[in-house]
C-alpha cells in the first residue's frame, strides 16, 4: 500500500509514530502536502529529511501502513470512529492549537463528525483528592451549566474526584459530556469507571476520546498529553480544586496558553486542595467562581432564570431518578415527606414510621443530606433544609 492511497490510514500510522510530538507531524505534512506523502518518500528522501540517526525514520514504510490498515479494520468493526485533523468533523477549537493531535479515536453512539462544534464546550477539572466542598461546588457548577440558555458540552478527564463528578453531574443534568482518556480507546482508566464509561458512550452526544493507539498503558507522560486535549477542546476551563501541582493545574495553564478563559473556585487558605486555585487567582490567570449560578453568564452562556422548587416530592424525584432504581427513589420521597411533617425526627423514629431497617434509613437520610434536602444535628435529628415555594 502507498501512503497516498488512504489518507486516514496514513494519519493513523503517522500518529502512531509521532503522537508524542504532533508538531513534527504538522511540519512534515506542511512540507510534503499530506500524511500519505510521508510514506511515499524514498529511502534517500527519508535520509535527507530525518538524517542518519533519527529513530523514527526507520518506522516510516509499508509495514507501518499495513499495521495501521489492520488497526483501522479491527477497531471499525468494534464501532470505534476516527477523526483526523483534516476531517470536517474534527473539533475546530482543538485544530487551532499548535500541538493538536493528528488523529482522534472516538467511542460514541453519535457520529464523530456531529460531536463537536454544535454547542460551546467547557472543561471542568480538578484534583483526584476531592473534598466534600469540592464535590458540592463541582455539582453546583455543572447543574448551573445545565440550566443555562446555551447548554454546553462538558469535557473532563475521567479521573477520580472532580473529573468523574463533573461527568456524572453532566449526565444527570442532561448535558452531553466527553471524557478524554490517557490510554488506548479499547481500555478505560481508571478501570473502576468502566461501567460508567459504557453508559456514557451509549448516550447521544457523549463520547470517549483519545489520541493514543490501542495497547497504550498509563504513564505519567500520558496524562500530560491527555490534558492538552481537554484544554484544546474547550473554550473555557473551570478548575474546581487543585493542589499546587496536578493535572488540573496543568490543564488550566494549557487553557490559558491557548488563549482560552480560565475560572477557579476559591478555597480556604489552609487547604492544600485549594492552593492551586488560589495561586491562579493571585496570578490573575483565572477569574474567580464567586457563585456557580453566575458562571454561565460569565462564560457567555446566558443568564440563569431562577425558579424555586415547587414541590419537595418532585424535587427529590428529579434529583435521584436518573441515578437510582425507582424503588429507592420512592423510599427517599417517603422519608423526605415524613421529615417535613415530623421536624426533628431521628432515624429510630423513621424506622418505626416506615418499617425500614436502620441501615436502609441511615443510607437514605445520608443521601438526602448529601444532596441538600435535609440537615441533621449532633443528635441525628432531621429537618428539611431546602426552601419549597
Question: Helix and strand layout, with pairings?
Answer:
Blueprint: H1 7-18, H2 22-32, H3 35-39, H4 43-50, H5 62-77, E1 81-84, H6 92-95, E2 103-107, E3 121-125, H7 132-146, E4 153-156, H8 162-172, E5 177-180, H9 194-201, E6 207-210, H10 220-233, E7 236-239, H11 247-257, E8 261-264, H12 275-282, E9 287-288, H13 295-298, H14 312-320, H15 326-341, H16 347-354, H17 358-370, E10 374-376, E11 382-384
Parallel strand pairs: 3-4, 3-7, 4-5, 5-6, 7-8, 8-9
Antiparallel strand pairs: 1-2, 2-6, 10-11
Q: Notable features of this structure?
A:
Arc Repressor Mutant, subunit A, 389 residues, elongated, alpha/beta
Explain this structure to me?
It is a single chain. This protein has 389 residues and is an alpha/beta fold. It has 3 domains: 1-77, no CATH class; 113-298, Rossmann fold, CATH 3.40.50.450; 312-384, Winged helix-like DNA-binding domain superfamily/Winged helix DNA-binding domain (Arc Repressor Mutant, subunit A). The chain is 44% helix and 11% strand. The chain is built from 17 helices and 11 strands. It has helices at 7-18, 22-32, 35-39, 43-50, 62-77, 92-95, 132-146, 162-172, 194-201, 220-233, 247-257, 275-282, 295-298, 312-320, 326-341, 347-354, 358-370, and strands at residues 81-84, 103-107, 121-125, 153-156, 177-180, 207-210, 236-239, 261-264, 287-288, 374-376, 382-384. The strands form 2 sheets. It has a 9-stranded mixed β-sheet, sandwiched between helices. The model has no long low-confidence stretch (mean pLDDT 91).
Amino acid at each position: 500500500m502507498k501512503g497516498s492511497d488512504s489518507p486516514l490510514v496514513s494519519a493513523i500510522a503517522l500518529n502512531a509514530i509521532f503522537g508524542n510530538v504532533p508538531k513534527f507531524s504538522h511540519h512534515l505534512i506542511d512540507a510534503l502536502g499530506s500524511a500519505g506523502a510521508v510514506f511515499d518518500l524514498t529511502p534517500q528522501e527519508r535520509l535527507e529529511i530525518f538524517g542518519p540517526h533519527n529513530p523514527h525514520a526507520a518506522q516510516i514504510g509499508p509495514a507501518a501502513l499495513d499495521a495501521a490498515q489492520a488497526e483501522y479494520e479491527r477497531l471499525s468493526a468494534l464501532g470505534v470512529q476516527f477523526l483526523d485533523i483534516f476531517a470536517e468533523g474534527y473539533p475546530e477549537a482543538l485544530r487551532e492549537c499548535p500541538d493538536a493531535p493528528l488523529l482522534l479515536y472516538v467511542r460514541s453512539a453519535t457520529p464523530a463528525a456531529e460531536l463537536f462544534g454544535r454547542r460551546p464546550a467547557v472543561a471542568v477539572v480538578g484534583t483526584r483528592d476531592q473534598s466534600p466542598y469540592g464535590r458540592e461546588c463541582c455539582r453546583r457548577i455543572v447543574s448551573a451549566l445545565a440550566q443555562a440558555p446555551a447548554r454546553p458540552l462538558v469535557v473532563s478527564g475521567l479521573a477520580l474526584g472532580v473529573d468523574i463528578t463533573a461527568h456524572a453531574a453532566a449526565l444527570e443534568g442532561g448535558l452531553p459530556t466527553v471524557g478524554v482518556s490517557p490510554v488506548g480507546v479499547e481500555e478505560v482508566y481508571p478501570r473502576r469507571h468502566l461501567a460508567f464509561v459504557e453508559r456514557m458512550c451509549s448516550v447521544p452526544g457523549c463520547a470517549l476520546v483519545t489520541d493514543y493507539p490501542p495497547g497504550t498503558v498509563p504513564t505519567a507522560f500520558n496524562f500530560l498529553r491527555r490534558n492538552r486535549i481537554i484544554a484544546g477542546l474547550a473554550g473555557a476551563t473551570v478548575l474546581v480544586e487543585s493542589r499546587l501541582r496536578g493535572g488540573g493545574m496543568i490543564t488550566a495553564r494549557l487553557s490559558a496558553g491557548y488563549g482560552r478563559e480560565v475560572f477557579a473556585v476559591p478555597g480556604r487558605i489552609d487547604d492544600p486542595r485549594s492552593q492551586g486555585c488560589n495561586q491562579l487567582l493571585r496570578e490573575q490567570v483565572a477569574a474567580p467562581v464567586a457563585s456557580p449560578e453566575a458562571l454561565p453568564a460569565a462564560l457567555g452562556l446566558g443568564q440563569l432564570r431562577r425558579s424555586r422548587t415547587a414541590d419537595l416530592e418532585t424535587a427529590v424525584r428529579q434529583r435521584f431518578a436518573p441515578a437510582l432504581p425507582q424503588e429507592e427513589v420512592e423510599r427517599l420521597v417517603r422519608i423526605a415527606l415524613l421529615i417535613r411533617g415530623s421536624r426533628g425526627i431521628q432515624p429510630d423514629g423513621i424506622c418505626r414510621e416506615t418499617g425500614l431497617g436502620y441501615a436502609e434509613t441511615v443510607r437514605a437520610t445520608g443521601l438526602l443530606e448529601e444532596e441538600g434536602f435535609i440537615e441533621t444535628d449532633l443528635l441525628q435529628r432531621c429537618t428539611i433544609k431546602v426552601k419549597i415555594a
